[in-house]
Specification:
about 80 residues; alpha+beta; Ribosomal Protein L9, domain 1; 2 helices; about 60% helix; RNA-binding; Ribosomal_bL9_N_sf; rRNA binding; ribosomal protein
Length: about 80
C-alpha cells in the first residue's frame, strides 16, 4: 500500500515522503496512529500543492537578503 508520511518514522520514511509499505503495517500502525495516510489521488494532489507552496515561500525568503543588500547600497550612495 502506498502511504504519505505525516511525520518521520525511524527506518521507514520522513514527513512528506510517499512510499510503498506492507498493507498490514500501513493500516494497523501508520494510519491508525496518525503517522501516515493512504496515498489517494486527492491526498497526492494536496501534497503536491503543499510542496509548491513551500517552494514559493522558500524562493521569497531567498530574495529578501538580496533586496536588503540593494537597499543598503542605495542608502549608502544617497548618504555619500
Amino acid at each position: 500500500m502506498k502511504v504519505i508520511f505525516l511525520e518521520d518514522v525511524r527506518g521507514k520514511g520522513k514527513r512528506g515522503e510517499v512510499k510503498e509499505v506492507p498493507d498490514g503495517y500501513a493500516q494497523n500502525f501508520l494510519i491508525k496512529n496518525g503517522k501516515a495516510k493512504a496515498a489517494s489521488r486527492q491526498a497526492m494532489s494536496q501534497l503536491k500543492g503543499q510542496q509548491r507552496l513551500k517552494r514559493s515561500v522558500k524562493k521569497k525568503n531567498l530574495r529578501k537578503p538580496r533586496l536588503l543588500k540593494q537597499n543598503w547600497k542605495t542608502i549608502r550612495q544617497l548618504l555619500s
